[in-house]
Amino acid sequence: METGENNSTSSSNQSCAVMKDSKWYTQFRNVSNPWMARYVYGLIFLVANLLAWAARDELSSLSALTEMKGLKGCKVGKNCLGADGVLRVSMGCFLFYMIMFWSTAGTSKLKEGRDEWHSGWWLVKIVVLVLVTIFPFLLPSELIDLYGQIAHFGAGVFLLIQLISIISFINWLTDCFGSEKYAERCQIQVMLFATISYFICLVGIILMYIWYAPQPSCLLNIFFITWTLVLLQLMTSVSLHPKVNAGILSPGLMGLYVVFLCWCAIRSEPEGAECIRKSESANKTDWQSIISFVVAILALVVATFSTGIDSKCFQFRKSDPPAEDDVPYGYGFFHFVFATGAMYFAMLLIGWNSHHSMRKWTIDVGWTSAWVRIVNEWLAVCVYLWMLVAPIIWKSRHADST
For residue 111, what are the CA distances in angstroms to 9, 14, 33, 116? Predict the structure, then answer.
């Protein structure tokens, strides 16, 4: 009996090793492979993004669809039909990944039933995906409006998860360079990366002043950019404090992320804003708008994919080293991130407002989008500073209690 168990365990370990070591095309042939399954789910998410874009920009031109029962409740005319379609596609995508979340959460070992369901059974899952994609188009607009309100919260959860994942990656990279193994031989590289990061941050801030605050009346943009510079200085000061001693690389990398969020926030301001420089052909769709839109969609898919496989940063205690038959990533967390990502791409495509019409080939445009980005920037700095200061506070409280 023991011999049979040992043989099955060794065969399972061998199959795991084969999956990890085999090349990508070999893994692609193996349809029941968790390493390749995540790319399939990412492809499904990309298709949902493109379908939502088509629903927003092309659906309103199809007059036959306005006769559908679920689309008659549009409140502000045919312009909101596209936003309605985006929410319906988003809801279908959300339902699919939530079904996968409920059916795979807690999976810990390879070759068990839930692992095979996550990594295989693609024909069944395609049927489920088609059904949940059609289902929202049969619902009345009142339920879609309710989903749109809930999607605001879900998109916020996605932003928070992504934020923690990025900060955890930055801290991990800093700890890696600061470890005993690399501390001495990587000092030059650390200083070089930190210097480049701060240089890019300062150049970015100067360019934002030139492009988005060309006159003193642009008070809001001046405030956004200046406050970003203040936050960069604050993160650097706290990180270099003797009690924290987190080095100069970590705040430099965080500075890149913060400056990027500020730039995205100002870019999200609508074209009517007097402090946003637009070309004379801004109202026309040109190749730059198309490329920017495609890059934004791909960046969203990549960000969702990379966040979904990073469940370890949300573990509050150190776990034992993984065994060879452990799942390579948290399946439940992976699908939950994609479910919230479905709500997030809906908010980007409708500008966080279901009754706000958006121009073709645009994404994440509107004052609501701008303020969401700014709040996300401020929240990122708060979370980062808390991660630096929290260990010192807990240590001092523990010392006082003893």
Answer: 11, 12, 10, 6
With a CB cutoff of 8 Å and minimum separation 6, the contacts of 134 are 92
Residues in the chain: 402
- Give the chain's domain count: 1
**Quick check: is 112 in a domain?**
yes
Q: 402: which DSSP letter?
A: -
Cα separation, 42 vs 161, in Å, equals 17
Q: Tens digits of per-residue pLDDT, 32-87?
A: 677 788 888 888 988 898 888 888 776 655 544 545 544 444 444 444 457 788 88
Residue given tokens 């029941």 in the structure block = 32
The chain-wide mean pLDDT, for the chain, equals 76
Q: Is residue 398 part of a domain?
A: no
Tokens of 215: 């006159």
393 CB burial (10 A radius; 0-12, 13-18, 19+): exposed
pLDDT digits (tens, 9 = 90+) for 346-377: 888 888 876 666 667 677 777 888 898 999 99
Q: What are the helix (H) ranges across 179-246?
A: 187-212, 219-239
DSSP label at 179? S
